[in-house]
Amino acid sequence: KMTQQMRDLQLAQARKPPGPSSPNAAKRLYRNLSGKFRVNYTSFDEGSLVGRGEKEKLRKSYLFQSNAALFEAVELQDLDRVQELLKHYSPEELDLNTPNSEGLLPLDIAIMTNNAPIARALLQAGAKESPHFVSLESRSLHLSTLVREAEQRVNELMAQVVNEAPNADCSEKEKQLKAWEWRFRLYKRMKAGFEHARVPDAPSSVHLSVASSSSLQVTFWEPLSVNSAVVTKYKVEWSCSPTFSPLLGEAVIDKLKDLHFTIQGLVSGTAYHIRVSAYNMKGWGPPQASTPPFAIPSNWREYDGRAPRRRGQAEALDHLLGQVKTVHQHCICHEPCKNQPQSRKHSVSKSLKHLFHPGSKFLKTLKRGLYLTAIFYKDDNILVTHEDQIPVVEIDDTYSCLLMQDFLWLTKVSCMWDEILWLRQCVTVSQSSCSCILQTRFKMLLAISQMQGLLGIQDLGQVFFEPIKDKQGNILIVTLKEVKTNQTFESVRWVPICKLQTSRKSVSSPEEPTALDTLLISVQDKLAYHQRSSHALSPGLYLGYLKLCSAVDQIRVLVPEQLPNILCHVKIRSNPNISREEWEWLQKMASVEEPVPTEPEADRSQNPLFQELQVAIKELMTLVNIPLQEAKDFRLYSQEVLDFGDQVSFLLLLPPSDDVCTAPGQNNPYTPRSGFLTLPLQIFELGKER
Description:
This protein is of the alpha+beta class and about 700 residues long.
């Protein structure tokens, strides 16, 4: 019999005891499991009476119970229990794709009882259908056998209960009878579900887009019909012919968390037709052709054969830096340093003891000058000195006004913290010129070296985009560094930020706080800025808004507070690639100086990029508080697409040429809403590189 064959195959793969035999047993088992989800199997002491073998046996017992509970939850159509089990156990721990003693998998039961929510939850967790149902006939035969055997068992138990006198054995047989009656009804429901099911309809929609010069991306949606069985996989086919003869390739997608697929290894410039079909337990349904019906792998750079802007730049800069080092390595001023290693290797735990050594050169108060402070934080804690002070060192006690050029130079130095010793030696050579700028920058390098030496850490982190100034003439440059490791340092104190803020005794008035007081008051804002500036965009094509404003000594760029390393932006679509055809359309629009598309036009309604741009422009104008009618004077930057790696690209939206950059004293006609800030252009460029 089919059932016996399935059982023999199951026993050959893995011996698993039968699960609970009734719905009441399943409920009791689930209640018992609910308090054991968080059992720590490694929490037993090695010297306790429970040995390793016993612990592993106990663990396997819990895992088997969870597997049995999953089967019973699916049979009872209890979605909440299924989701809870999938949340607390991995597919391997649940034996998600190992058949039970009846040759069934949890997904088989879900789809044959036509429980779509449970089936989808199982599919997203990686559940499969039983591979033993090689045909419709084999599945039908197996279900018929299960129903017949369950009915036979019910009749046998019923006869025994009727004929036997009431006793303990009879009571046990009555329980078995109820359990088998319930299982008989389950198998009948599964058999009826299979017999009434039909093949799925075609996917409701199939969208085709160009992913690169050698790949296409296919996105599809479930069939709309609710009468067919649950779809368990999809098939993507592609061909150069609209008749799909010959067929160039196909792929079966059974991981249904995301309904999309990228076809790789295609020939650039060749048109490919795509279609997708769905599968359920009754077989494959009809295919659905894509929209558009075909696509040609390409990239916007193929329009004029342009090479990537950054190709070879990193290698060229490394080579240039190597040449500069070679020129300076024989300088006289370097002779005393030859015996010193170029990169000092400090023992972090030992060097951090300097924080608490009475002779350290960290400052407690500021006395009219230029200073450097380093903020190291972990979660809600901050690193402080032995006197509960944020580490501060002096740069120059005669420097009363920080020139923006010096500050921006320091931010560039922060990209090469491990080269400070070498930079100091190079600047020393040039001090004979007595340049005030060189003198100041040399003192900056000395202060950095002092901070690195006292902390025993080379990387001081990222420079905050503006120094803190007070009315006493103090200027405080702040660096920020997040410590993500769980390493503990000997004698080092991590103080909660709130405690540091409340315990510090201010020596200034609230009306005129010192730079240190201002730092403590605003430290959470600075840490939030530092964390947000390292966030990355999700893959896709974005529309960015470029707005500048100029001052006497700098140009600043408008950015969102939540993502200050990126221009103001909205997402156009998830596919970052601009195809050659799309770029040709953008070039034509730019060549005739057409306005930005804000209203639909009949002859362009079939252009997907045109429709996507309309939606994105409206959303962006709302974001930056610009009336939509004024966007008609805006322009799309048509010289290039800004690529940030392979997964993120930008199209730029520019105001009219006279309004791209607001001059000092000029009224800004476009006032953005709250949630934005302006960064110095050089700071923004460095943040984007990071």
